[in-house]
Amino acid sequence: MAQKDYYKILGVDKSASQEDIKKAYRKLAMKYHPDHSSGSKENEEKFKEISEAYAVLSDPEKRKQYDTYGDEDFRQRYSQDDIFRDVDLGDILREFGFGGGGGGSFFSFGGGRGRSGQKGRFSFDPESMFGFGDAAGGRQQQGMEAKGRDVETELPLTLQEIATGVTKTVSVQTPSGKTETLTVKIPKGLIDGKKVRLAGRGQPSPYGGPSGDMYIRSKIVADRVFSNEGFDIYVNRDIRLTEALLGTSVTVPTVDGGQINMKIPPGAQPKSKLRVAGRGLPHMRGSGRGDMYVVVNVKMPKKLSKKQKELVDSLAETGL
């Protein structure tokens, strides 16, 4: 799936204010709106693209998630349905001066045929246009049976399991009330909040249609050695005061079960972070990994021997 840069799509900087984003969307909507364009398929696709970008960037929480995790991971967290939920583009475009009746997420434009069949109107319905929800493909009108409800369950995973991938057993309840054990292959990179889909393992359809899906959402278990921020891994490494002053070489464990040797430079400060590129958690899809950060913890002696105290006193006299 091609990467999407919502800021580039709207032609704004990442520091753009909500007002800047709204103005940019208005300008592009005026250009690609069916009332002002030829009504070509290319313009329709462009209109869909800018509407999706606006739906994300105009929502502070969605924008924060997009900025934090990037396009690929954002779209693993948010479906098209999620992106347009609670976004009323009809109200927005009416505010911009376009025609359109009806509430909710549906509204009409001049230039085509609306849902009601009224000529001279163009219908924009995010559900049918983007292929989600009950309106997608005219499901109700075509008599297709409704799908059962999706279900979601949480699965505790260690950072080591997320780094390497793992096979887990999951207990689920069948429609008859029995408990069934499933063997599920968990891919690498399933960090907090990401999901694995098990098709047809959700609730049965009450109308005879296909069953819903089950989504397994990861929950990272606290670890005494490693912690993470997204795909980046953090590990603490204790060193002595003299090692901090003079520099040293240390062995550090990696989250995938290996070890690396690294140099700590002279003058390392307490809580300073040394970056090891590409040794964090793997991305769920495609290539690439996060980074590992070694957090230096300088161990201060609680008590000095007589000789050590004399040496420290001598160092103090030199201005150290």
Structural description of this entry:
The structure is a single chain. With 320 residues, this protein is α+β, with helices and mostly antiparallel strands. It folds into three domains: 6-138, DnaJ domain (Helix Hairpins); 151-220, Urease metallochaperone UreE, N-terminal domain (HSP40/DNAj peptide-binding domain, Sandwich); 226-314, Urease metallochaperone UreE, N-terminal domain (HSP40/DNAj peptide-binding domain, Sandwich), CATH 2.60.260. The protein contains ten helices and 13 strands. The strands form five sheets. A four-stranded mixed β-sheet has the order 8-9-13-12. The radius of gyration is 28 Å and the shape is flat. 22% of the residues are buried.
Helices and strands in order:
Blueprint lengths: L5 H5 L7 H15 L8 H17 L2 H18 L2 H5 L4 H7 L11 E7 L5 E6 L1 H5 L20 E7 L1 H6 L1 E8 L5 E8 L8 E4 L15 E7 L5 E4 L2 E9 H6 L1 E6 L5 E6 L8 E4 L15 E8 L6 H12 L3
Parallel strand pairs: 3-7, 9-13
Antiparallel strand pairs: 1-2, 4-5, 6-7, 8-9, 10-11, 12-13
Organism: Desulfosalsimonas propionicica
GO molecular function: DNA binding; unfolded protein binding; zinc ion binding
Protein name: Curved DNA-binding protein
